[in-house]
Design goal:
By secondary structure, the protein is mainly alpha-helical. Helices cover about 70% and strands about 0% of the residues.
Amino acid sequence: MAVGLVTGVLFAWGFGLLTERRLRTHGPELLDMMRTGRRPASAFGFMAMPEMSRRGKTMSMLCWSFGPIPLVPQGIVAGV
């Protein structure tokens, strides 16, 4: 029980710090979005990726394609 309590306090403290930093850097945009209901125009969207080299694009595609494969057997074995 003590470990759970300490973990909860540490998570609350840590995520509180992250929230404070995020609000300091993105607070005006957040308030504008809440006021108008529209997202402000930005250079990068949620899924937009910066320009990458051909090698970087290939590595990214390989990682996104083959990365989840080890998770399936681990999930099946753990479930059985």
